[in-house]
Design a protein that fits this description.
Protein name: Undecaprenyl-phosphate galactose phosphotransferase WbaP/exopolysaccharide biosynthesis polyprenyl glycosylphosphotransferase
Largest sheet: 5 strands, parallel
Keywords: Membrane, Transferase, Transmembrane, Transmembrane helix
Number of helices: 14
Strand order of the largest sheet: 3-2-1-4-5
Order of helices and strands: HHHHEHEEHEHEEEHHEEHHHEEEHH
Oligomer: single chain
Family: Belongs to the bacterial sugar transferase family.
Shape: globular
InterPro entries: Bact_transf, EPS_sugar_tfrase
Radius of gyration: 28 Å
Subcellular location: Membrane
């Protein structure tokens, strides 16, 4: 990455229409007053954080109102200056407590733009703030010996947590809608070799919710190899990275792959970016590894990136197993009227059994029979050979969008995913999980290469690829998402996938 930090020796026209060039001073680490530093070049987070601040305050006020209205004797123990309990209580409930929430949320980084908009860190910080506020209230109540209504306090704090989480979830959905229209995004300049930069480009464009829009690629090597070929964004070479970012109005510089390993160059680039308001992001060659598995431990000024093994055993895995079986059993009991209605409709519309049990490959390669409500005619397997030329799947699964073997009631069950409910039986038996990679047909034999890694966990009723596109995804994308789940599984991720499954089923996208 040596040339990336040098002044340009040869000029290159950026676009045909650009007529002005922004020139920013290169600081090279010269000390400046902290009060004179330029604010972040990315501005999308300012109105968004202000909105969250307002919503959080309103959530705390609403929760206090709920506690006052629905909790008996909430003001016991407070004495105002005139002997009345109400003035002090209402001041605490509607002003002091909400403001405390805002201060604690701010202290826990819940308004930090690095954690807003994507991932679970934002909600983790909200939960930490909840624990902190509970601790503060408990200590103050003990110190001043106030006879608080425990039910009122519990109601106010718990409802606040629920409302803050809900409003932030809705605000995030609104943010995603804006980013789909090209608003509230960060413009990114990718720095590195073309293959490495292209890999990062593909990753960030797949995750449109992240709001990262590549606007250019600065090539640290192999510039001649891309001449004359079509690139997704303009490519540049022999330029100063900081001035190039200014010309492209890029507020983020992402150093990709091996370019981040150049001794001293990354540090000098960070010096040059001081005072410009632009973010520096390092995208190492380590891909598809989630944050909880990655830890940076500095040794004598050298930041070492530690990658932990996936958590496929231990207490968390035991909790997942217990929750799977318990929730599946409760689900079978509660949904029994619906399951009975589905069975009757299948029996009434076509001859044959209610259930279809197909051999599938499960955890550690063990074969089991996967339960599903029958959605096809009984001669479906015999007719498959004649339809092989119409297969729309590029992987191990056989998929046709308008499959003639599907019954009328079967089309409805597939669109609504109700046919999958029978797999709760497999979950109760321990053969499947609520969340995991989809079980593959056993007749495909031994799985080769990376696909075998899917067998490290129990297959699931729903999974990451189902909530990311289902049958609309290519086989390679489905495998990539399943492997990502295997390597980065967590209880939080499972819960997130279950919530996303509800939205996907309601939209009926990719279900056929």
């Amino acid at each position: 990455m040596t040339t990336s930090l040098q002044r340009p020796t040869t000029g290159r026209r950026l676009t045909e229409t650009r007529v002005s060039v922004n020139v920013e001073p290169v600081t090279n680490g010269v000390p400046r007053s902290a009060w004179m530093r330029k604010s972040s070049a990315a501005t999308w987070h300012r109105p968004y954080a202000t909105l969250l601040l307002t919503l959080d305050f309103l959530a705390a006020v609403t929760a206090s109102a709920v506690a006052v209205v629905f909790t008996p004797y909430p003001t016991v123990g407070f004495q105002g200056w005139n002997g009345s309990t109400e003035p002090v209580f209402y001041a605490i409930a509607y002003w002091a407590l909400p403001l405390t929430w805002l201060l604690v949320l701010w202290g826990n980084g819940a308004y930090d733009r690095r954690y807003l908009g994507i991932g679970t860190d934002e909600f983790k910080r909200v939960v930490r703030a909840f624990v902190t506020v509970v601790s503060i209230v408990s200590v103050l109540a003990l110190m001043i010996k106030t006879d608080l209504s425990r039910l009122a306090v519990f109601t106010a704090l718990t409802v606040t947590l629920i409302l803050i989480a809900l409003t932030r979830f809705l605000a995030r959905r609104a943010l995603y809608m804006m980013r789909a229209k090209g608003k509230a995004v960060q413009r990114v300049l990718l720095v590195g070799s073309y293959p490495e930069a292209l890999e990062v480009h593909r990753a960030v464009t797949r995750a449109s919710q992240a709001g990262l829009i590549p606007v250019g690629i600065y090539l640290t090597e192999g510039a001649a190899s891309v001449r004359g070929i079509s690139t997704p964004v303009p490519t540049f070479a022999n330029r100063d990275v900081v001035s190039l970012a200014a010309d492209l109005d890029a507020d983020t510089i992402a150093v990709c792959g091996s370019a981040s390993a150049e001794p001293g160059e990354l540090r000098r680039l960070a010096w040059q970016l001081e005072g410009t308001g632009r973010d520096l992001v390092v995208a190492p060659q380590l891909t598809d590894i989630a944050g909880p598995r990655v830890h940076i431990r500095p040794v004598e000024g050298l930041p070492l990136l530690y990658v932990e093994e996936p958590t496929l055993a231990g207490v968390s895995w035991l909790v997942k197993t217990v929750l799977d079986r318990t929730c599946a059993l409760i689900g079978l009991i509660l949904l029994s009227p619906l399951l009975l209605a589905i069975g009757i409709s299948i029996k009434a519309t076509s001859p044959g059994p209610v259930f279809f049990r197909q051999p599938r490959v499960g955890m550690e390669g063990k074969t089991f029979r996967c339960w599903k409500f029958r959605t096809m005619y009984i001669d479906a397997e015999e007719r498959q050979a004649a339809l092989m030329m119409q297969n729309e799947s590029d992987g191990l699964l056989f998929k046709i969008k308008d499959d003639p073997r599907v019954t009328s009631i079967g089309r409805f069950l597939r669109r609504t995913s109700l046919d999958e409910l029978a797999q709760l039986i497999n979950v109760v038996k321990g053969e499947m999980s609520l969340v995991g990679p989809r079980p593959l047909p056993a007749e495909n034999g031994d799985f080769l290469g990376d696909v075998r890694r899917r067998l490290l966990v129990r297959p699931g009723i729903t999974g990451l690829w189902q909530v990311s596109g289902r049958s609309d995804l290519s086989w390679d994308d489905a495998v990539r998402l399943d492997l990502y789940y295997v390597d980065n599984w967590s209880l939080t991720a499972d819960l997130q996938i279950l919530f996303r499954t509800v939205a996907v089923v309601l939209r009926r996208k990719g279900a056929y």
